[in-house]
Design brief:
The strands form two sheets. Strands 1, 4, 5, 6, 7, 8, 9, 10, 11, 12 and 13 form an eleven-stranded mixed sheet that branches. By secondary structure, the protein is of the alpha+beta class.
Length: 388
């Protein structure tokens, strides 16, 4: 009898509890009370192409500081294709080899009081092309002894031994004919320059090959945006790799962005010099952005985040305090947008197309905020932009 009473009480409590729940739900419904649940507002990147201009395959600069030649050579390839419809694989190392000689001369004439490194800028390639022409990759790869990867780690140190000794000792130097010594070092590491070569069954030298491509290096201009020089004027930008004192045309920052957009819409690509030292530049993720808060840096590699508003003053500040430097050149070949409508430049890098640290096939989608803050300059065909 006691057992039945206990069971009855348990059943009674259950029924009372159910009744209470039903009454509560009805009450909430009658009073139009709504319980709001905050779901995570995280949207992963999904990109849609807007502009996609023909470019050659992504290459690797290997263990070298010659991104400037890979960027400008890829740019030249797209320019030749735009004019002729033929994609020619241009030798990056042909122009690197000539530019190393030019840098050695500059270093000696300045008595060692200037930077001497592997670095350079896009206009250095055009300077080399103007003086010496161009060659296809098949004629001059710059790779020796069956090597498949560029490695210039020994070149500059060996060249500096020769040049520094000559600068210090002059006529008593062990390298009185330093030019010959320089050429010997470059021959060992990069190979002798070809006097002639065959391309598609036709014999060329570098200058006749340039003529065949119909490339005119006088048709290009380098654009930038800084506050320490007047706008709409040309000036020599004092950055370490501008050893050749190349000139830059100065534009307001928003104009630099609109000119870049205008060029792409017309089918022109651009060679890009920028800073990639930010933690939010990631070749592994194929993205480059400037989050509004550094707390979102890691998240921004996968999810769309609010970005910082880049002003000309902030850009100038970052340049003057060395947070923005001329440390890498790439090639802008198009534009994409994410599902929120934010636009990004499609940028071809030169770190290869595969590997654990290489995503997006070797391309980087660069937000306009990143571009505005971190771009040093762009080089483009003059016809791509309105009269300056």
């Amino acid at each position: 009898m006691k057992t039945q009473t206990i069971k009855y009480k348990k059943m009674k409590y259950k029924l009372l509890f159910i009744a209470f729940l039903i009454t509560t739900l009805i009450s909430y419904s009658q009073e139009d009370n709504v319980i709001t649940v905050n779901l995570p507002n995280e949207v992963k990147y999904e990109f849609t192409p807007i502009i996609d201009i023909e470019a050659s395959a992504v290459k690797s600069q290997g263990n070298t500081g010659t991104c400037w030649s890979f960027s400008a050579s890829s740019f030249i390839e797209s320019e030749i294709f735009r004019k002729s419809g033929e994609m020619i694989d241009i030798s990056e190392m042909f122009n690197v080899r000539h530019t190393y000689n030019t840098k050695a001369w500059n270093y000696v004439m300045r008595q060692g009081k200037t930077q001497f490194s592997e670095g350079g800028l896009a206009h250095d390639v055009l300077n080399s092309v103007k003086l010496y022409g161009v060659a296809p990759e098949s004629a001059y790869s710059g790779l020796q002894n069956d090597s498949t990867k560029h490695n210039h780690s020994k070149i500059i140190p060996e060249l500096k031994v020769v040049l520094d000794d000559y600068i210090k000792n002059d006529k008593d130097s062990a390298y009185k004919n330093w030019k010959v010594a320089v050429d010997s070092i470059l021959d060992i590491h990069l190979g002798k320059l070809p006097e002639t070569f065959v391309y598609n069954g036709i014999n060329y030298d570098a200058k006749s090959f340039l003529k065949m491509t119909a490339l005119d290096v006088s048709n290009y201009i380098t654009l930038t945006s800084f506050l320490h020089q007047p706008f709409n004027t040309e000036f020599v930008l004092n950055i370490p790799d501008n050893f050749s004192n190349g000139t830059f045309y100065n534009l307001p920052l928003n104009d630099l962005v609109s000119v870049t957009d205008e060029a792409l819409k017309k089918g022109y690509t651009l060679s890009l010099d920028c800073d990639v030292s930010e933690k939010t530049f990631s070749q592994k993720n194929g993205i480059a952005v400037i989050p509004k808060s550094i707390d979102f840096n890691e998240k921004a590699m996968t999810y769309i985040v609010e970005e910082n508003e880049i002003t000309p003053e902030f850009r100038q500040q970052e340049f003057e305090n060395y947070n923005t430097t001329d440390d890498h050149l790439m090639h802008i070949v198009g534009m994409v947008k994410d599902q929120k409508g934010n636009e990004y430049y499609k940028v071809k890098n030169s770190w290869g197309s595969t590997g654990n640290r290489i995503g997006n096939g070797g391309y980087v989608y660069m937000s306009k905020a990143f571009f505005k803050l971190k771009t040093i300059s762009v080089m483009v065909h003059k016809d791509a932009i309105k009269a300056i």
